[in-house]
Amino acid sequence: MSVPARELAIFGSAPAFASPLHVGRPNIGDREQFLVRVNDMLDRRWFSNDGPFVQEFERQVEAYLGVPHCVAVCNATVGLAIAVRAMELTGEVILPSYTFVSTAHVLQWQNIKPIFVDMNPVTHNVCPDQVRAAINERTSAIIGVHVWGRGCDTERLESIAQSHGIPVLYDSAHAFGCSHQGRMIGNFGKCEVFSFHATKFLNSFEGGAITTHDTKLAEKLRLMRNFGFAGYDRVIELGTNGKMTEVCAAMGITSLEAIDDLIEVNRRNYHHYVTEFAALQGVSVLEYSSRERNNYHYIVIEVDAHRCPLNRDELVAVLHAENVLARKYFWPGCHGMQPYASDPPDARHSLVQTDRVAAQVIVLPNGQSVNTVDISRVSEILRIAIQRAPDVRARLQANLG
Ligand code: T4K
Q: Is the pTM of this model over 0.85?
């Protein structure tokens, strides 16, 4: 689709979008159905503590993923924290630096040292060779992250872990509705943790879920998300408050009902991005394998510093001026964030691929609030910016000065 050439907002024109185009604008299923559920909930006066909507949502997630146990939680960060605690991890845990910082924080909060390792620059997922090299006698587990919903190398991670007698758990915050080697994500490792945050493909406002094949672990997780209560007045575990509320579960159920439509919108947008961006010099769209099930939620572009005449930060500045609020996920990698960046001595080393990839990635808007006309317009903005790279660079530098 061609969009008429226009002046860029950094040169003083009105932004291409009158209101911001966000990455992470929430998807909404059938609003009426959701409101019916909210009314039911109000009538029942049952708002939290393992209510009927939470139980229904859990059974639906189990059926969708083909996993025996789903434990819904208030968010993925607390879900990860409970999982780490329930698995009695100690000492050090190995994880990729290229992830949202909460994956690391849940360890540090529990006095477990996160050991950051580098990624495979093609998949953006953790590199198993780096994991193997980081294992020592203090290592109690490996956390794999399915970055952008693309499954990490579960086979190699699990075989490395097995040979050292340690478990693997997965941060699957991005990966609801995705498969890996034909198997739904949610069925790997000791357990997997999903996020249903507002910005995620499938949202429950705030929320998350831990899925596992391990019945004993599921029981422990259920106790731990509810302070450790095993009945009235009887506490048998060190728990916390990790419960999902009923209104969140109502949103989760409503989102799950719409999942096929949500995937279809994302898929359509993704293919449109791929087509429109094909001619942009030095810019590529990260691919989703046609052999797997994908949620196509993240539109990830990489700006090749050698081929694109503008760098990532310049393109982001151009887009922001146009009201396209592109994001630099995950920049810097966790090892460049506090407290890890100043954690002596070994966390300060540079992770070459993570540093390089994190400096060239842009995540663009997707989901129900983006359409193909918007995408063509975003592409046109980038095309003009790249064509006029010297002017753009000069203007951005002048704006800074
Ligand atoms: N592991 C991984 C790999 C993760 O990516 C995440 C979360 C987690 C674990 C932890 O999951 P949770 O504990 O959150 O369940 C956002 C999200 O808050 C975070 O959930 C997500 N990853 C991360 C990748 O993105 P921020 O700091 O970028 O959020 P913020 O406030 O800048 O919002 C992002 C964009 O979404 C903005 O442009 C505004 C828009 N937005 C946001 C909200 C909340 C809306 O349009 N409506 C909304 O309601 O972290």
A: yes
